[in-house]
């Protein structure tokens, strides 16, 4: 089988100074893409800033014979996001691939979570992905080509103690991804999301140490690179990935319960088992399809 290449493609990877983003940038560059390595360079909580991490990754890419440019802007501000995409346009003349990866952690039990802890995490993960994608969108539409990969998390999809802020942002990215997939379809813009697990500074005190060497960032990047490749035809999907395993995560609906008479509290109680039934599950492609069973009930 032929090697997947990205020659002639321009990729923007946010938060690429460390961890997963760094690996995505290295891999895309090694396979021929020109890469904007964005990173604000703060610590795990988002405190501080430094141009160093992004610059170091660029030097590494260049040393390996690749092409890259550093950008130290903040994904969470409109000006920062605009500047990140402008760096791609000014340096390489276009943008084809956007990997929204930048992230911070401000874990706290819900009882103790401050508005600032909630807002700052939403700002980087959710608002940042919106702003950077938005800054690239007109170009992607005009050229009739784009690949967007958003970074969700199992914590967002399934919930996790101490991460009400993070989980909200990460589940938000699922709806964001599915909507971009619909709006981008006509322009050959594919948007997908990953829910990774990898050993990075973000997770080194959260994951079991025994698995450190098995949960390398290099076990996540191949999926990101595939989703960012022109041969990927799928859009609006979410995949969990890490440690050599990949699986698709579905938003699905059960068979449900319906009645012609006006619903009462007692009818809900009496049909609770049917309402909660989880087989068969249906995965709807859009909200119109999801209305199907209801329309059928209303018209039968
Ligand atoms: P990391 O801390 O090594 O990398 C995150 C990078 O984002 C850092 O280099 C940081 O400087 C940068 N960043 C933070 N705020 C930024 C901003 N406002 N603008 C630009 N850059 C900014 O963490 P890791 O693990 O590589 O995380 C990457 C992504 O993967 C994050 O979105 C994270 O939530 C997600 N993720 C990671 C998991 C894991 O197991 N490592 C699990 C699930 C999701």
From TrEMBL:
<dbReference type="InterPro" id="IPR036291">
    <property type="entry name" value="NAD(P)-bd_dom_sf"/>
</dbReference>
<feature type="domain" description="Ketoreductase">
    <location>
        <begin position="9"/>
        <end position="205"/>
    </location>
</feature>
<dbReference type="InterPro" id="IPR057326">
    <property type="entry name" value="KR_dom"/>
</dbReference>
<keyword id="KW-0560">Oxidoreductase</keyword>
<comment type="similarity">
    <text>Belongs to the short-chain dehydrogenases/reductases (SDR) family.</text>
</comment>
<dbReference type="InterPro" id="IPR051687">
    <property type="entry name" value="Peroxisomal_Beta-Oxidation"/>
</dbReference>
<dbReference type="Pfam" id="PF00106">
    <property type="entry name" value="adh_short"/>
</dbReference>
<dbReference type="InterPro" id="IPR020904">
    <property type="entry name" value="Sc_DH/Rdtase_CS"/>
</dbReference>
<dbReference type="InterPro" id="IPR002347">
    <property type="entry name" value="SDR_fam"/>
</dbReference>
<protein>
    <submittedName>
        <fullName>SDR family oxidoreductase</fullName>
    </submittedName>
</protein>
